[in-house]
Amino acid sequence: MAEAHQAVAFQFTITPEGIDLQLSYQALNQIYLSGVRSWKKRVSRIRNRVIKGVYPASPSSWLFVVIAILATMYMRSDPSMGLIAKIQQHLPLSAQGQTMLSALVFSTLLWFSLILALRFCLKLLLSYHQWIFEQHGRISNTTKVWVKRFNPRKPLLYSYQTSLPHLPVPAIKDTLSRYLESVRPLLTDPKFKRMTELANQFESNLGNRLQRYLKLKALWATNYVSDWWEEYIYLRSRSPIMVNSNYYGMDFLYVTPTPVQAARAGNTITALLLYRRKVNREELKPSRVPGTVIPLCAAQCERMFNTTRTPGTETDVLQHWQDSEFVAVYHKGRYFRLWVYRAGRLLSPREIEYQVQRILDDPSPPQPGEEKLGALTAGDRIPWSQMRKQYFSSGVNKRSLDAIERAAFFVTLDNEEQGMRGEDPAGNLDRYAKSLLHGKCYDRWFDKSFSIVIYKNGKSGLNAEHSWADAPTVAHLWEYTLATDAFQLGYTEDGHCKGEVDRSLPHPQRLLWDIPSEAQVHSSLAVAQALADDVDCHVFPFSEFGKGRIKKLRISPDAFIQIGLQLAYYRDRGGFCLTYEASMTRLFREGRTETVRSCSNESCAFVKALEGGEAEEQCRCLFKLASERHQNLYRMAMTGAGIDRHLFCLYVVSKYLGVESPFLKEVLSEPWRLSTSQTPVQQIELFDLKNHPDYISLGGGFGPVSNMYFPLAVIANIDGKNKLGSGFSTD
């Protein structure tokens, strides 16, 4: 009860002698300090809005313009060409006051005009994408001048947002031509002829009508794809998001910084909150295309923390809160609210470890229905929505659910040991990845923007919800967390977090539940368990060679892997299939992804030649052509000339108009038999791999999207040695 008394700022009672007022100065002081922190954040947000609002100019440039205008007026010159005099006529002030105020008004208008002109020029620069198609050593003069001129002044995280170009709508003729080319190696001559006829009919009839609506949306909306993609591909899906949508990230492969579970949790939580502080203050540098100064859209960072996906009958909703001073923790079937701030101060890593250890040492059992409650987020969405409305809309259940959903993020203190360890490192690595993908199907909160998993032996990992952002954004977060944990925060010799502990900290708050019926929990768990049991996961390290050696051969590592996957599938199945590879479109504002159709005429020609015993030189030539073709497909997808997002949006428009298109219906029903993804680690170069070559993460992975194959590959160059970490998942 001591903690409860400390939480009360004042008490008063009415007695026969009068009013007895008791003040808790400690509580009042904490309220005051929390308010100070809140106001500091507000002031910081206002400051950042001003700075990015006038970017690429600076607020101080306004004063320079004012001084310049006043100086020219002092020299009896009129830089406004009569505009200042017209402004003076409408000011009810003295002559001197009219002169000064009109000069300030004109200077401000001129300043805003210069900002708009600079922003327009910056948008033109960022709209130039020819550089991406040029080969090394063959850079055009235009690109050289462009790169030399693009030297922005210390941007904040969101400084480029208003200057990024909008995603263009490709010409419908170009999209259909690219589509037919992509399916040519997959169809027989009669089927290809039929598909060509369907495409021509679509173009000449319904296609142009749908295209007009899409162009109208592109003029009005920031991005003509992203809102529909988020809504219809993610939020409207009624199937489980566990495995089907959520993805995972892994810890260091060969190193565990500490075997102490609470200590690893302390540093990991601290690192994540430090990253959140950088996001809130916009202190992170905008992400860039690797090896260039070209900025990428940062919009996905906005909902990284304090965000949850809430279920609905027809569609889910992403809810985001401005701030949260606590995280939600799960351990042995119990849920806790762990406050990570006290009186406006972020707890030290040692203090967070102390609080986590209190949770680990708590002997209380789960309440009825509490242990497997998280299965609701792992099963189908409609039952979870109905359960939420029936049992979580009021009372103690609502308060506890709000604590989880409003938390900065979710933490699972897993009672298992994971990692590449013991006598069966390969098998244990498989189990480690599978655990991060779905766990026990009830010990993660899959609706949270991301959940951190800390295992009993100090290993860690991450499970992320997919609708709010794509993997590269979360990969940056996770890379920062691992690097900060291991190389900046560090541990003492006995494996504990550094820093002092205030032992008067109140205990983590146990969340209370009143679950009258567990039937739906068990039903959702059965659905999720069947899905998890149907997934086989194999992850393995590959150290024979990696991207360094591939690049020395002047071959794209991405193209190398994709062509290799085509060869492997052909050897296994005796044919080719529709292949999905994700490409980003974050060169454009609010861009997300585009599909690279990796199975091309050129890759198929190489595979057939190699399997048919053609001469080595002929195979080399065909491999080079296939590689160049794949790189070109990837570049076109990045620069807005992809196929699938355009066709998807045309299909959405057709549904809104209530018209049927046999062509679009058939295209969007084609199964992706092979779905691939490549996530490079060490993207922001926070790891010192030269001095610490073992601090390498194997990256992460997704669940399978069909009943066939879902390979993924992660490439890294470690300490001059070429290593390739590769995973292979099948359903």
From TrEMBL:
It catalyses: (R)-carnitine + hexadecanoyl-CoA = O-hexadecanoyl-(R)-carnitine + CoA. The keyword Ubl conjugation does not apply. GO terms for cellular component: mitochondrial outer membrane. Pfam families: Carn_acyltransf (PF00755), CPT_N (PF16484). It is a multi-pass membrane protein. Its main location: mitochondrion. GO terms for biological process: carnitine metabolic process; fatty acid beta-oxidation; long-chain fatty acid transport. The active site is at residue 466. Residues 1-47 form the Carnitine O-palmitoyltransferase N-terminal domain. Keywords: Acyltransferase, Fatty acid metabolism, Lipid metabolism, Membrane, Mitochondrion, Transferase, Transmembrane, Transmembrane helix, Transport. It is found in: Mitochondrion outer membrane. Residues 167-707 form the Choline/carnitine acyltransferase domain. InterPro entries: Carn_acyl_trans, CAT-like_dom_sf, Cho/carn_acyl_trans, Cho/carn_acyl_trans_2, CPT_N. The chain crosses the membrane at residues 54-75. It comes from the Eukaryota. Its EC number is 2.3.1.21. Pathway: Lipid metabolism; fatty acid beta-oxidation. GO terms for molecular function: carnitine O-palmitoyltransferase activity. Belongs to the carnitine/choline acetyltransferase family. This is carnitine O-palmitoyltransferase. It comes from Lates calcarifer.
